[in-house]
Structure formats: structure tokens, C-alpha cells
Amino acid sequence: MFWGVDIGSTYTKIIGIGKEKEITHHAVIPTIFNQDVIVGEYLADKEVKMLVATGYGRHMLGDSHGAPVISEIKAHAKGAYFFHNEVKTVIDLGGQDSKVIKMGEDGGFTDFRMNDKCAAGTGKFLEIAANRLGLDMQTFANAGFDADKELTISSMCAVFAESEVISLIAKKESLANICWGVHESIASRLASMAKKFVVKENDCIVFTGGGALNPFLHHMLELKLERKILVPEHPQLIGAVGAALSGFEVVQ
Amino acid sequence: MGVELHKDLLSSIGVDVERHAKMMGMGLAGYQAGFMSQPNRPKAMAYFDWFMSEIQAERIAEINALKAQKKPAIGTFCIFVPEEIVVGAGGACFGLCGGANPPIADAESELPRNICPLIKSAYGFKLQHTCAYTQSADFIYGETTCEAKKKTWELLGKHHPVHVMNIPHMKREKDLKMWQEEIKEFKEHIEEVSERKLSLAEMLEGVKLINAKRDAMKRLDTLRGMHPDIMPISGKDALFISQMSFLDDPKRFTQKVNELCDELDERIKNKVSVFPENTPRIMVLGTPIAPPNWKLHTAVEGSGACIINEEGCIGHRYFKDNVDIEGVQDEDELYARLMQRYSKIDCACFTPNTGRTDKIVQMYKDRKADGVIYYTLSFCHTYNVESHLVTEALAKEGIPCLVIESDYSPEDAGQIKTRVEAFLESITFKQKAEAFANK
To answer: Does the predicted TM-score (pTM) go above 0.95?
Structure first.
């Protein structure tokens, strides 16, 4: 068994693949304290031929399990390529950062951009906004489809953007319209990062990370980039798949 | 330790001795952990290790001994200040503290948050009285290279004597004429502090000393970066030497750098490298990396790459040009030559500044580097905006480039490491793919 573990800021994703690169195990567990121990417990009764770590907590697993590490960028590139080998650009929205990856040949990448200095434009911001509106993520994501007005959240900072949301609530704007505004602000941020790399009109874009589970964000991103964007079946597992595959390649 | 020994002196020049000792303790611990643990360092680094331990102690005593003889002691923030004149007058010209995070919180009580960390840090050091260089300066020589600095001088002037040199932002003939007058005026300020006239011969002597220092640093730059298969010294050590070039006595420093270079020459002959074969060799561009800002180098060299050159002001931009004094007969001619030399500085404060981009591409080719990191301090608008032009030109040449914007806070060290690791992965992938294609 070849294992890939992606320790993200919010969730830890574990993937196991077999001899034919078939996915045999997958797990998503909240990231808390001593995550390396939790991963160790998960793997305790499993056959581990190879274990590769990625995500912000990758070095933790490197230190405790001696696991080789790869960056999230490489992991997402590899994972996205595995499911869609025509991919030219990967957009990943995680809990604490977002990134756009320009693909090279054969699943490698040639360049990337990251927003990691600020919570606006990350999954965290969606969480903050949903909490503020008292909605769970599912309801929050779908409410945007019913919007009848284009509200803009213009702040560059998640803290101030939250106060913009509060003032929209005070103005009695509808939930649907506020949801639209929040998603629009993230989508336009991601789109402007992606535009740097998206060259040809029909270049294939794959959207990954927990953010890609959000159907309305996916929709807004398609509008901004004026094309169809692919979302793999389990977008939040893509990094872990990439990690597992890179271990697989070394051993095979 | 050095600081303890010079407690009375430090206290007499207004240093907050207790706080200063605490900060120096932290700085030294950081240096010991980050630098002295590196494997296979050149023996000649011992001098620079000693200098680090005396950076805010013995060296301060030396500067204050000069001051006691009415020699000028001038604090600067920029490589536009003609140190040749200060050194010619027998004095000391030194860069002021501005690379540490702790003083920033104090500075923000008077300065806005969203300006560059270098300015805030330096200002905070003055408010806290924790930089013995700042405390030793007869005056601080400011310049007009950016908006934040030029307005900060007005505030800083309330706490310490400040002179401001007007550096033009274009290099037309009328701008250069004004610049030359500024250099002459600088000399007059130095004469005021020294309470005597400076002779042409003295100034020429100063130029010779500083030319020799720049030659030594160029030699180090060549040894460190021009041999693709051997890296005889780490990028961190070389950066540290560059940082110390603004603090040490120029004559001694030149001698010590040359001694180090002799050792590196030997290392190259004997193929002694501090990094394994095929380590990616990275060039760093952009804003100054003032001590103890070792964040980028730590992340890069801790991720399996080597930094072979800093293009910035603390680095190549500082030592790339010498003053030509061949046939100088009078003072005005010398000011003209100084101006010619200083106007070759390709600071992003100039518009246009296209020469810089061409230079970078050439440097990359000369060094056969594997990639470039464009490092810009947060809110350094000139270098930040210019990064777009530079990276565009690099992309056209197919040169891998990563842009990192950061300040002095430790909070983004993890993110920077992720970016650097990913960048290195992309380079090694490219190397492997190229090797495969060439098979």
C-alpha cells in the first residue's frame, strides 16, 4: 500500500493506493493537536510500503515517521494530473491559503502563485462569513444561486470584510445577496491570480481543495474565467492523492 | 561577552543598556544556532564570528575612540551616501540597525503601520535607544529614495540630528548636476563635524580605501557564485559578510575578506564545496536584507538549495562600481567622479530603471544559476512594482523566478518555506526533464 497524507490547516486527508494506482482507502479527519500521532494510529493496522507527507504539517510527519515530504504545490499538480491529464492550470482553495499552479508536461509544474499572507481569498474567509450569517457551509454555498442583486465586498482583509458583511446585514440586505457578494470576492481574487497563467482560451483548469466542494464558488469561478472548470470527485483529497502517487512512482 | 565589558561606554552614549543586552543576547543566540552550526565553514569565518560577538561592543568602542579625536561618525540607511569622504576624514560611516522585528511595535506608536519594516525597525531602535550605532552617530544621513523614508526623517529629526541628501529620481543632465552639488554639500557637513577643512589628498585616500573594499567584495562574489560545480562558502555566511561591510572598519574588513578569499581560492582548487553536487544555485534579487534578517536565506539553504549572490543594496549593488580617480586634479573633478559612480546605482527609485533588468539577466547567465528569487519587503513600493518588469523579462528568457514579499515578523516563515520548497521542486523537475530530453 502506498499512502499519501496531506496535513492541512483544517483537515488531514489520508489516501491509500494499491498496485494499480487504485484508491483503496480515504479518510478526512479534522486537524487538531499531535496530528502525527493521529495519523500513526490510523495507519497502525495497515500495510505501509510507502508514506509521503504534504500540507503545512508535512514536516511533522517527516520528523516522527521519517516520511519523505513534498510541497502542496507538487502534490496538487500530481493529483490533478492523475484525474485530468489535460490539465494546464490548477486552482486550489485551502483553509489557510489559495494557490494557482501552472502545469508543465507529465504532471510536473513550472510556476505557481500563492495567497498566504492574508485570510481574504482563503477557505477561512468563507467559514468566517458563514458563521457570521449563522449558516452551515452547505446552505451558505447554495444560497448564492438565489441572489437578485450584485453586492460587492471590496475589503482586502478578512477582518474588514467581515465588518462589511456585518454592515450589509444591518442594511437588511438578503442572505442570498450577501452570500453572492462573499463568493464573488473570493472568486475574483482567485481568478486574477489564475489569469496570470491561463493563456489559451480552451486550456483546461482543475479546481481542487476543500473550496472546490462549494458549488456556488465553482459557478462564480467559471463566470470569472469564462470557461468550464473541472472539479474532481473528491477535490479535497487531491493533495493526498498526489503525495501517494509520488511515493508510488519512486518505488515502482 | 563584549556588551558587558563596554557597559559604561554604552550607557554614556545613551544606550538602554539592559534592553540592549537582552536584544544582543537574542541576536547572538540566533547567530550561533543559524551560522556557527553550518558544516565545513571556511576557517577565515572565525574573524566574522568574532566581529558578530563585538558588533555592538568593541566596534562601538572603536567608533567612539575616533569621535574623541574629532573624527566624524556618520550613520546611514542607504548606499547613496559617499562614505569615501567620511573615511577620508578619518572617521567611520556605518549602516544603522533596521533589520530586527522587536522595535517595530514601538515605532508604530508614531509611524503608520503600512510602511516598510526597515524604516519602522530603524525608527523603533532610535525610540528604544537599543542601537549603539545610532547612538554613536554625529548625525544620521537620510536620503530621498522613497516616500516613507523622506517623511520619516522629519520625525526622526526630533530624536537625533539628521541631514537629508536629495537623491533625484531621474538621471537627466539637470538631475545629475544637482546630485553633484549634493555630494559637495555632504563634504561640507563632514567638515563641520570635523571642525576643519578636508584636503583633496585625504578624500582621494578615502576613495582608495573604499575601492579596495569593493574590490574584495567583488572577489568574494565571484568565488562564491561563478563556479557552478563548487560552492566554497554558504550563501548565509556570504550574506553576513555583506551585512558587516556596512559596520566594520574598512581597512581591516578588506584585509579579512581577502584572507577569506585566499582560502576560498584554495577550496576551489581542491574542489571543496559546502553543498553536495547538483544543489540548485539561486540568485536573490530585490530589497536590502539588513541584519539580523536571515529569514530568506535560512528558508532557502534549509530546503536544499544554495544562494550564490544577492543583487540587492546589501550585496552586489553596493560593490559593483568603483570610483575612477585616474587623473583627478581638483575637488570639483572628484565630486564629478563620485557622482558618476553613485549615479550608476540601479535603485528602483529611478524611473526608468531598465539597466537593472538587463544586468540581472546577464548576472544570471554569467553565474549559470538555476533560478531567481525576487525578494521584496512589504510596502517597498518601488522594488515591488519593478518586480513585475523584472519577472516579465526573466520569463522571456525562460529563467525560473519566485517572488516573495515579506516583513520581519516570524509568522510567515512556514509559508515562505512552502513556497521555496515548491519552487525548488519545480527547478529540479526542470533539470531532470532537461537531462532526460538530452539523453
So the answer is: no
